[in-house]
Design brief:
With 328 residues, this protein is mainly α. It is 53% helix and 7% strand. It has helices spanning 16-30, 51-68, 85-94, 99-103, 106-114, 120-134, 148-165, 210-218, 236-249, 253-257, 263-289, 292-321; strands spanning 3-8, 34-39, 76-79, 140-142, 173-175. The chain binds tryptophanyl-5'AMP (TYM). The site of tryptophanyl-5'AMP has 25 residues, from strand 1, helix 1 and helix 6.
Length: 328
């Protein structure tokens, strides 16, 4: 059976882009393959953060992932820092990833432009992401379009390691959805919807109430034409709404476009589709949030299951790279 792995950062509000670009596939894949999903709290340390807020965000993201449909009985759901294997393998991969490769990462370029303190870890971030993936002998990585380059780097790192030190890692492939792979900001549709822009009018948080969702979609920036047509380059705002509706209704943006002759009607239906999609998630999130003890228990079970897989791969990598066995 193929192994699926993916991760999400507990920073900022989880939003519609995360849901359509990644989490829908996570939920579907858990029933088809052996699936392992990780809340990557160590990655969230690469930028300035508030410690108490990070702890709370980690807990509440776990609850949101379950509310979205991850079933801890079916998949393995855990927190990255609960296993030391991730940091350990990340070091081995930093030693087999080049400075040049890391310098070419567009996410590093964007994120380092946005902050006055560029941590060394922000630069080596993709090596930790590669470690996350490779520890689980992963075949498939369901992600949004913005992670494409990181998965390419993971493949290159795995191949180089295997070539230098012998077969150690499975070389993974990304899985990117047809619709919703890059949900754009509603106010600035040439930039992707992001957590850092969260709470703004351009981002729909999964916890936004129906009124806020409708308001944000009805006020979404479009263009001065009137024709409803899917053309991301010429009509980024309208195309984004079509893409969101297509992802929510499991259709294609082109066929959604055929049903509309005005922006107003498209926006109204798009808002209804998003509200209807989020209502059961929000209800379940409310229920799960009431029992943090149970969430912590489920995460501990998830960490045990993950450790069992990760420790074997790490031991193999340490052996193959030439570290002396410390077991005696
Ligand atoms: P993160 O936490 O930024 O996002 C989690 C997932 O959501 C997708 N995503 C989007 N998809 C469509 N439209 C958008 N506007 C949008 N914004 C985010 C992302 O592509 C991602 O799939 N580096 C990763 C976390 C990570 C990881 C991993 C992912 C760490 N280790 C191992 C996969 C495998 C990140 O920051 O995702």
């Amino acid at each position: 059976m193929a192994r699926v792995f993916s991760g999400i950062q507990p920073s900022g509000e989880i939003h519609l882009g995360n849901l359509l670009g990644a989490l829908h596939n996570w939920v579907a894949e858990q029933h088809k393959h052996e699936a392992v999903y990780c809340i990557v709290d160590l990655h969230a340390l690469t930028h300035k953060h508030d410690p108490a807020q990070l702890r709370q965000a980690t807990l509440s993201l776990s609850q949101m992932l379950m509310a979205v449909g991850l079933d801890p009985q079916v998949c393995t759901l855990f927190v990255q820092s609960h296993l030391s294997e991730h940091s350990e393998l990340a070091w081995l991969l930093q030693c087999t990833t080049s400075y040049g490769e890391l310098s070419r990462m567009t996410q590093f370029k964007h994120k380092s432009d946005e902050t006055d303190f560029v941590s060394a870890a922000l630069f080596t971030y993709p090596a930790l992401q590669a470690a996350d993936i490779l520890l689980y002998d992963t075949d498939i990585v369901p992600v949004g379009d913005d992670q494409r380059q990181h998965i390419e780097l993971t493949r290159d790192a795995a191949q180089r390691f295997n070539q230098r030190y012998g077969e150690t890692f499975v070389v993974p492939s990304h899985q990117i959805p047809k619709a919703g792979a890059r949900v754009m900001d509603l106010q600035n549709p040439t930039s992707k919807m992001s957590k850092s822009a969260g709470e703004g009018a351009g981002t729909i948080s999964l916890t936004d109430d129906p009124k806020a969702i409708s308001k944000k979609i009805m006020r979404a920036v479009t263009d001065s034409e009137t024709e409803v047509r899917y053309d991301p380059a010429a009509k980024p705002g309208v195309s984004n709404l079509l893409e969101i509706m297509a992802a929510a209704r499991q259709s294609t943006p082109q066929s959604v476009a055929e049903n509309y002759s005005s922006y107003g009607a498209l926006k109204k239906d798009c808002a209804e589709a998003v509200v209807a999609m989020l209502a059961p998630i929000q209800q379940r999130f409310g229920e799960l949030s009431a029992d943090s003890g149970e969430t912590a228990r489920l995460l501990a079970v998830g960490a045990d299951k993950a450790r069992h897989m990760a420790s074997q791969t790490l031991a193999r990598a340490k052996q193959n790279i030439g570290l002396l066995d410390g077991e005696g």
